[in-house]
Write a structure and sequence with these properties.
The chain is an alpha+beta fold and 97 residues long. Helices cover 22% and strands 14% of the residues.
Length: 97
């Protein structure tokens, strides 16, 4: 459910402070656990280490991401292909072609 327009987008205050202290072209990774924070225009050009529950996934913020949440770009689940031995043997056969 989206946040009320009256309240405005939520961005962690600690995260905004880290962004304000960093320089955009520096390339330093800003680690965060705040996956619910909305990406604001001030964050464009920074690299974030967004925690996915196990590790920090690097996310480079570009202009198209403004308005989305940081957690959207750091998947929490790893997809393991469907099927069993038969699917694996078929994929090996296709790779040989």
């Amino acid at each position: 459910m989206p946040r009320s327009l009256k309240k405005g987008p939520y961005t962690d205050a600690k995260l905004l402070k880290k962004v304000a202290n960093a320089k955009a072209g520096e390339g330093k990774i800003i680690k965060t656990w705040s996956r619910v924070s909305v990406i604001s225009p001030e964050m464009v050009g920074f690299t974030f280490g967004v925690h996915n529950g196990r590790e920090h996934t690097t996310v480079y913020v570009v202009e198209n991401m403004v308005g989305h949440r940081l957690g959207e770009f750091s998947p929490t689940r790893k997809f393991v292909s469907h099927g069993g031995k038969m699917a694996k043997s078929q994929s090996k056969d296709e790779a040989k072609k």
